[in-house]
Amino acid sequence: MLIDLKIKNYALIEQLEMHPSPVLNIITGETGAGKSIMLGAIGLLLGNRADTKLLFNQDQKCVIEGVFDISQYNLQEVFTAEDLDFDNTCILRREISPSGKSRAFVNDTPVTLDVIRKIGENLMDVHSQHDTLQLGDTSYQLNILDIYAGNTSLDIYAGNLSYLKAYSETYRTYKKLESDYKKLEDQLAQSQKELDYHTFLLNELDEANLQAEEQEALEDELKQLENAEDIKLKLTQAVQSLTESDFNITSALKDTAYLIGQLAQFSSKYEELRTRTESALIELNDIAGELEDAERKTEADPQRTLEVQERLNMIYTLQRKHQVQTIAELLTIQEDLQQKVGSVLNLDTAIAKTKKEMDAAYQEVLKKAKELSDRRQASFAKFEQELHDLVADLGMPNARIVIQHKEAQPSATGTDEINILFSANKGAQPQTLVKAASGGEFSRLMLSVKYMLADKTALPTIVFDEIDTGISGEVAVKVGRMMQQMAQKHQIIAISHLPQIAAQGDYHYFVYKEDREDRTISRIKQLNEEERVNEIAHMIAGANPSANAYQSAKELLSL
């Protein structure tokens, strides 16, 4: 519950602080005094977006801070999920600088707006007049019924999830598989358009039977084939120069080695020189042998030349076609084409597998949807009767409430479409709330719904912003008593303009304007017993209440 609220430098509020009662708190004040401004500040505390135009003093930052006692509300998992330290006292704070920069804190830890919003959703339920109009929305009605039926609470039979959460996760799985299935089908349709072309290119490369290093070898071989006669001539001349001419090198080296050998007896260095000369002679003989072998093998071969030329031309053509320079790149393209063609051939298998999984998930969706729907429908009669009894007690004894239901295709919320039909008068046919309910009837319906749901939610604090619109008299007294009963399990903060409700509060806060020389500011104070009598008398009779008004105020307070 909220134990302390501070608002500084916001709209007409220079500085405000209140310490609400743990039960029923009533806030009253003249129109425009700043009651709704307080709600705007609380909205910022719960994650609403900020506007620097709302700063009281444009040169100072706005600070809104709420201190909550959450020791009894089992919110540890919520904090753990957001990686926040849990403490029995939770402090939410928003700061808006004059430059427009907004900062949010949970227990002095900086957080994003999304995080403070998630934490705030578990601490306060702020009900504005706009929310009353939401009651006419069928999706809002379905959410109300789920809370009433217990579909949003953890349940061991739903795998320690709520029935609604269990269904939502199953539905999300199904939609993911459905999306995957459609993508695969689209991929298959697109791939089939390209399959013939890719298959042609792949077959062409397969038939080429390319080898990684063959281009360089073929280009070298072609050079030799095209210059065979010249190569053979030069090899012959080289052999002759080494071994056959009158002044060949090998004969000269033999003579040199012999002469140096005769000198070996005079010095060991001549022996070393002779050895080196003989080694050179051996190397030259090897070179001569290899030259002779190469010369014998070198022959002009027009047929082989043609074959090599054709092979290279085919390689060059493929390289130009695929805009690459090497066989390695062609082999990479070939591998890629194999994968593309193979993936198309494998798509049928993937599609069939995904279709099977999708169909199984759909059946699970239908199963979970039926469980959810059965629980909803089982609560219809009880919901209708309880809501009827409450609104009857609030001055609509002839009201009729009927839940219209029809089955629909699975959606994120199940297979149910519901509409709460209402008629306030005897003999009138129930119609949709938008058509049938007036403003005051809407207010009483919404309060009754909130009353019904209060025991089924774990929210520490509920805020009502003039939910008593359109009611008066004895009905207003009953509304106040209904709020008192709700306040036995939830902290209630209610902004009201009715004296019958104001008299029901444990704490009564009064919001008023104070005029200064330069501007007007809003203030709030907790009224003592005498001040409460005066304020309620003013609410009854206006600016100059009579003695009867004061007496009526005392009677309301005594009730």
Automatic annotation (TrEMBL):
One example GO MF annotation: ATP binding
GO BP terms: DNA recombination; DNA repair; SOS response
DNA damage in keyword set: yes
One Gene Ontology term, aspect cellular component: bacterial nucleoid
Pfam families (UniProt xref): SMC_N
Keyword flag Zinc-finger: no
Coiled coil: 167-245
Residue stretches making up the RecF/RecN/SMC N-terminal domain: 6-515
Keywords assigned by UniProt, alphabetized: ATP-binding, Coiled coil, DNA damage, DNA repair, Nucleotide-binding
Matching NCBIfam families: recN (TIGR00634)
Its biological purpose: May be involved in recombinational repair of damaged DNA.
Assigned protein family: Belongs to the RecN family.
PANTHER family reported in the protein's UniProt record: DNA REPAIR PROTEIN RECN (PTHR11059)
Name recorded for this polypeptide: DNA repair protein RecN
